[in-house]
Automatic annotation (TrEMBL):
Name used for this protein in its record: Integration host factor subunit alpha
Keyword annotations: DNA recombination, DNA-binding, Transcription, Transcription regulation, Translation regulation
Superkingdom in the source lineage: Bacteria
UniProt xrefs under CDD domains: IHF_A
GO molecular function: DNA binding; structural constituent of chromatin
Native source organism of the sequence: Kaistia soli DSM 19436
Family membership noted in the UniProt record: Belongs to the bacterial histone-like protein family.
GO cellular component: cytosol
Family matches, as Pfam families: Bac_DNA_binding
Gene: ihfA
One GO process term, biological-process aspect: regulation of translation
Function: This protein is one of the two subunits of integration host factor, a specific DNA-binding protein that functions in genetic recombination as well as in transcriptional and translational control.
InterPro entries: Hist_DNA-bd, Histone-like_DNA-bd_CS, IHF-like_DNA-bd_dom_sf, IHF_alpha
Keyword DNA-binding: yes
Assembly with partners or alone: Heterodimer of an alpha and a beta chain.
Length: 109
């Protein structure tokens, strides 16, 4: 599965093309959105983007892991992790059962 990686520059260019802001304003807008999402996640808040998905912070407690090479048990320290849960709409779009306009491929529009 060799797909293209979308970068910040790609996002800025898409905003520039589709919204009509200047390139500078588009870059600032993308940065502001990403900064706000990051700040919320760092504070431990969940970020839900309708029809896209949710970024959730989970706390993992200390546990015992195993070194796969030696089999030695090693303690894994507690930490917070960020997980992304895609929305059902995004899942349907990925699997081709829902078009971007919200209709199924067989619907007559």
């Amino acid at each position: 599965m060799a797909g293209k990686t979308v970068t910040r520059a790609d996002l800025c260019e898409a905003v520039y093309q589709k919204v009509g802001l200047s390139r500078t304003e588009s870059a600032e807008l993308v940065e502001l959105v990403l900064d706000e999402i990051s700040a919320c996640i760092i504070r431990g808040e969940s970020v839900k983007l309708s029809s896209f998905g949710s970024f959730i912070v989970r706390s993992k407690s200390e546990r015992v892991g195993r070194n796969p090479k030696t089999g030695e048990e090693v303690p894994i320290s507690p930490r917070r992790v960020m997980v992304f849960k895609p929305s059902n709409v995004l899942k349907q779009r990925i699997n081709g059962t829902l078009l971007p306009n919200g209709h199924a491929p067989d619907d007559e529009a």
